[in-house]
Amino acid sequence: MKKNSELVGREQGLVTPPPLAARDKTQKATNCIAKRSQSIYKPSTMTASKDEKQQTPDESVTAKETKKHKKKADNWRPLGPRDPFAMLNALPEEKQQEIQRALHLFNLGPTLPRTLEQAKKHQYHFWDTQPVPKLGDTISSHGPVADGERRVRAEPYSLPQGFSWDTLDLSSAAVLKELCTLLNDNFTVEDDNTLRLDFTEEFLKWTLQSPQWLPQWHCGVRVDSNKKLVGFIAAVPTDLTVYAKEINMVQVRLLCVHKKLRQKRMTPVLIRELSRRVAQRGVQQGLYSAHVVLPTPLSTCSYWHRSLNTRKLMELKYPGVRQDIAVQRAVKLNKLRDATKTAGLRAMTRADIPALHSLLQSNKSKFDLSTNFSVQGVEHWLLPRDRLTFSYVIQGEDGGLSGAFSFFSLSWEVLNDPQHLELREAQLLFCLCPSADLKDVMEDALVLAKAKGFDVFTALDVMDNKTFLENLKFNMSGKRTHTYLYNWKCPTVNPDKVGFVLPI
């Protein structure tokens, strides 16, 4: 009865509040509950005090409810740090590709300029020391940048500690395989991290062992501790005609440095060492190309792409292929005829080498920059090779050759795509038809390339190519290549006055 009267009194406000000690105890219990409620949202748990362990029945019920809420909250909290690769693999395939492309772009590091405007603001600490024309110079004369015979250093250039030079023996299958691995992993990856060049041993023999090649011009860099190949640069001899001046020089090929060593200034040392070795043979000039702007481009050419396997290219979002139309419509727009129509068109044979050499030599006078092919050079560069070079000639009624064209194969590994693993690209070397319609002959080249299983056909806007590029539905990409001469200055050359294409 007493307990009930107290309860009624409290409801009516007639009973005095409990003593201070009791209020303190109640306040502590309230604070304890509040702390436990807050711990649900904190990553770490709190240790109960002695006062919290000595709970009244009412506090015990409240504590159980609090633990229940805390358990529910913990169900949504990750159990420790998660594996980032597992998290990436758990995402949809399309999201994974977006993340990997973004990571690739953000990890490119310092890059050289891609446009002339960017180049004018860039400082070229290495190239300013080399015998090349300076950016912005107006050049009207012809001749070497460094006059007279330059002193040739006798000893090799010094490499960073832990590295040493190695002249690669490409006759060794093991060395060729090792060079393929270095190039495939480090040479060229597209900026969106979707494609990577896939080199083969046959391709390396073709591009590095042309007539009169020298083994000492295949410069490698190895790690002393494990002999791993981490750097490479090569040169092959060539005869070039520059504004009617014939020059014996070299073509620089396949400059490559391992990704982890690109900030260690190894590229300039590779260039200096190759220049030293070439100069030891009395050669003072060199020809090279790059997709970046260096001092100073002799000529700048654009890449044009023609779809052969349109559906595949659209699925890969290949640059230069329209994505704003339906696939079926795009396939119909890029459809080619089933067979060639040029009379006398056939595959090149070894017997055609002398006639094709004469045809090429008679045509080079049209250009300000051209290659002087030898008979051995025509055999090496143009004679068909399985899955590598494809050359065709047009035989006239009199038995002579009235035209020819040639293209070579580039294989790309497709990255971050669950459906496609490889992309085959045909790249035009030349198309020469003085007595026939160039557009019709080039359309036959597209038909033949498609029949050989190529996915895309690529051409530069050099020679007479502009006469057919747009008519045959080639699309210009944003990619450009710049041609340079080492230790030679002359006026710039327009793309249509360039009479050759460098394989790499």
UniProtKB/TrEMBL annotation:
InterPro entries: Acyl_CoA_acyltransferase (IPR016181), NMT (IPR000903), NMT_C (IPR022677), NMT_N (IPR022676). Residues 36-48 have a biased composition (Polar residues). Residues 1-81 are annotated as: Disordered. It is an enzyme of class 2 (transferase). GO terms for cellular component: cytosol; membrane. It is a peripheral membrane protein. Keywords: Acyltransferase, Cytoplasm, Membrane, Phosphoprotein, Transferase. Residues 49-65 have a biased composition (Basic and acidic residues). Gene3D superfamilies: 3.40.630.170. Coiled coil: none annotated. It holds the Pfam family NMT_C. Residues 150-301 form the Glycylpeptide N-tetradecanoyltransferase N-terminal domain. It catalyses: N-terminal glycyl-[protein] + tetradecanoyl-CoA = N-tetradecanoylglycyl-[protein] + CoA + H(+). Residues 315-494 form the Glycylpeptide N-tetradecanoyltransferase C-terminal domain. One of its GO terms (molecular function) is glycylpeptide N-tetradecanoyltransferase activity. Its main location: cytoplasm. Belongs to the NMT family. Adds a myristoyl group to the N-terminal glycine residue of certain cellular proteins. This is Glycylpeptide N-tetradecanoyltransferase.
